[in-house]
Structure formats: structure tokens, C-alpha cells
Amino acid sequence: MGSKIIFLGLIAVSCYVASAADPSPLQDFCVADQNSTDPKVVEANDFFFTGLHLRGNTSNRFGLRPTPVTVAQVPGLNTLGISIFRVDFAPFGVTPPHTHPRASEVVLVLKGQLEVGFVASNPENRPITKVIGMGDMLAIPFGLTHFQRNIRNGTAVILAVFNSQTPGIILMANSVFGSKPDISNDVLQKAFQVDQNVISQLQNQF
Description:
With 206 residues, this protein is an alpha+beta fold. It folds into two domains: 164 residues, Sandwich (Jelly Rolls), CATH 2.60.120.10; 38 residues, no CATH class. It is built from four helices and ten strands. The strands form two sheets. Strands 1-2-9-4-7 form a five-stranded antiparallel sheet, with helices on one face. The protein is globular and about 60 Å long. The protein starts with a helix and ends with a helix.
């Protein structure tokens, strides 16, 4: 069964490689570096990563731990338009609502059962969710707010494949209530239609 799941994971990766293309820009901003790597000194380790078989420590407030494999970990991914994450979930662990500003995503379940969903922009604010288990996958369109939730009293593992070497992540609550300096209370009060004290409490948590 394990080899079958790995095979499915390789299919998912190969499908993305076949049509990989990074959207522009690759990151929030990019300051040019005139020093380029000489191809003569490139080696296999520039394209290599080990550790996706290791379980991540999920003892945190969300109950999950991502193991990223992006261009930051594997320099050889530069310009290839692909990256991959292993994400471990504790029982009932949650990936809170977030977006990836530079990538679409395919979620492949290696272990457990999760509710995976995203919110469509057309029709406006329509949630699309599905419970998926081992060997199942769900595609998450570019830029849409989405989440994953382990629905079982046991650990879960997913493989998340992105069509960007640097997909990025914006956690909704963190970006709104945890920005430094703070976003104006007047803006947040009008946006969320709540009392200023509620806004202050939320900002204090982040």
C-alpha cells in the first residue's frame, strides 16, 4: 500500500512538472543579484533533498508541521516552477484559512482523512469542501482562500504540490491582526463590523 501511495505522489508531481510554469512575479519583490552560478560547479546536491519520510513535530497551536521543499531548500528548483511540502497533522489539527500568492496546489493524502476546502470568488464566497482519504487528491485553484482539517483522532499526512518554486503563504488572521505596525482599528472595525475592544483582543493574540 505504501508503494502505491508513493506512486500516486510521483504521478501528481510528474503532472505538475509536465506543465510547470511560474506565475510572475516569483516573490513579493526581487532585488537583482548580478552573480550567477557557474554551471560547471553545479552538483547533484543542488537538486537533492532528503527528509520527506520524517514526521514533523505537531505540538503547536495549530497541530501541524510543514516540511517545505522549495528553492530555498533545493537551489536546483530555480526556474523549474515546482515545489512540494509534506504536512503532518496531529489529531484534529488544522491548517488555518490561507492563500498562496504565487501558486495553485494539489493536495494528496498519504495518511488519515481530512476535510479540504477553498472559497470560490465566483459565485462570491461559495465554500467548496470535500473529505478525502489516503490516495485521494484535491486541486486548489490559484490564489483562493483554503484550509485543511484532520477530522480523525489520529495523525494525518499530506503531500502538497505547487506550480511555483516559491508559492508563499498568507495566513488570513495573521496578516490582518498580526501586521506590524498594526492596521488601523478604524479599518478593521468597518471590515469586520465588531467593537474596537474585539479588534484589540484579536491583535493581542497575534
